[in-house]
Amino acid sequence: xxxxxxxxxxxxxxxxxxxxxxxxxxxxxxxxxxxxxxxxxxxxxxxxxxxxxxxxxxxxxxxxxxxxxxxxxxxxxxxxxxxxxxxxxxxxxxxxxxxxxxxxxxxxxxxxxxxxxxxxxxxxxxxxxxxxxxxxxxxxxxxxxxxxxxxxxxxxxxxxxxxxxxxxxxxxxxxxxxxxxxxxxxxxxxxxxxxxxxxxxxxxxxxxxxxxxxxxxxxxxxxxxxxxxxxxxxxxxxxxxxxxxxxxxxxxxxxxxxxxxxxxxxxxxxxxxxxxxxxxxxxxxxxxxxxxxxxxxxxxxxxxxxxxxxxxxxxxxxxxxxxxxxxxxxxxxxxxxxxxxxxxxxxxxxxxxxxxxxxxxxxxxxxxxxxxxxxxxxxxxxxxxxxxxxxxxxxxxxxxxxxxxxxxxxxxxxxxxxxxxxxxxxxxxxxxxxxxxxxxxxxxxxxxxxxxx
Length: 453
Known about the structure:
By secondary structure, this protein is α/β, with parallel strands linked by helices. It folds into three domains: 23-98, no CATH class; 102-199, 2-Layer Sandwich (Beta-Lactamase), CATH 3.30.450; 205-282 and 290-452, Rossmann fold. 39% of the residues lie in helices and 21% in strands. It has helices at 16-36, 39-51, 54-57, 62-80, 86-101, 107-110, 144-157, 205-211, 216-227, 242-250, 293-300, 317-325, 341-355, 361-371, 435-440, 444-452, and strands at residues 115-121, 126-130, 133-137, 168-172, 178-182, 192-196, 232-236, 259-263, 275-279, 307-310, 333-337, 374-380, 386-398, 401-412, 423-427. It has a nine-stranded mixed sheet, sandwiched between helices. 33% of the residues are buried.
């Protein structure tokens, strides 16, 4: 067929067997949804919760409790003369166990290593992210009350609460996965649960280089940055992989150093032996008892840290972080939401002003230029791949402007398709301002060699 001409050949009908597997694959999900929303399920569930001592049951293992639930379910089926098959009974018992020990119907998604994010939009919509792309799953909750119940158990497990009077909360699961919950009336279309899964695989800079997230030369420069105790800010959008990159870089911190981490919801996975992890605390119902990131940064300075790692800068704590970086706590790291390194500098300026509006902009910029050495920009691209798009060094000040220079940049090929991004990580071959610092640590030659490749 020639380019630009239409093919009038009628399409061949698809073999009958081609559509059958999809129908068979969908049928179990449809029947499962119908089952867990049926009166039969409610009858058995009510019998189980009426017959069991839940406090005692939760002290046992899932396997031990399953035997008891199986027996109660069998008696309820016989007593009520319910028409339930053996496979349906297994599904009902699994659903009840997931409610008791897990996160309801989305429990299987937590065990799926291909899933990175789980997004619940009310009872009828559960999306997941796989390989950077969102897809709708067939899983559903019984109703909105079921979603709220799961959300409240997640929050209660880490000493937090979520209800109509406090409809938003950040929490975490037992495996370290980060959870955000928003309930009505804030969430207009039903309760929302967003789970950023804890990576079971140990993500290293070397593995990221193998996956194409960065180049071998960038890998070498980031390792040198950690070794030379540079202050690094990782910048990017939501879900771009900032925390993953921060975890990977932290593995190159020396084992003898004392590290203090500060987060809203603990998700950093530092492997060093001497790590103190601090987590913020929201206010209680009386409006007291809250501990902010700024409080924790101030306290961390009294804990004799070698490095301070802040999960994310999002407010006035930026002022205290810059103070720490400028007062001997070299090698500190943090992340920030920004689209470019220049935007990251502007956001830092704005957040410092939130802490002290009387500071002059020139003074703030001098602090940033003095405190921050590198800004690493990471982006989730349209093909779903996370890539480091730029490594920018803060050189200093020229007048009232912060001067920066790019050391690496990702150059995208112009002919790339919509679903496939191709390009190369290119070095600018500029001698970095921290080369003298690298010479002090004996790695200047390795730094120059990495920038030449």
